[in-house]
Amino acid sequence: MSHIHLDLQPTAPARPLSALPGSAQQAVRKLVATIFTWTERARMRRRLLSLDDRMLRDLGITRAEVHTETAKPFWRV
User: Fold this and answer.
1) Which helix (H) or strand (E) holds 54?
2) Using an 8 Å Cβ cutoff, are 44 and 34 in contact?
3) What angle do helix axes 63-70 and 22-50 make, rounded to 10 degrees?
4) Buried b / exposed e across 4-27, counting CB within 10 Å, b at 16+?
5) Left (φ > 0), alpha (ψ -120 to 50) or beta: where does 16 sit?
6) Residues 6+ positions from 30 with CB-CB distance below 8 Å
7) CA-CA distance, 32 to 26, in Å (whole number)?
8) pLDDT tens-digit profile of 48-61?
9) Binning pLDDT at 50, 70 and 90, where does residue 6 land?
10) Nearest to 75, CA basis, from 30, 47, 36
């Protein structure tokens, strides 16, 4: 039987966001907001792919428009 040894080093505890200078807090908040936006955009594009043709007609978009939209990378509007 083989043994696995993990050499784990202790890490410093994470600092709360309030411990950062104001400009760093803003940068972290902006980064989190951007990641949230990207995640939501990717989720909505996946959801578009799951809609049937009747639902797409109700929304006023075509299957071709769905494929164009869902082919975009998550960071592109």
Assistant:
1) helix 53-59
2) no
3) 150
4) eeeeeeeeeeeeeeeeeeeeeeee
5) beta
6) none
7) 10
8) 999 999 999 999 99
9) low
10) 36
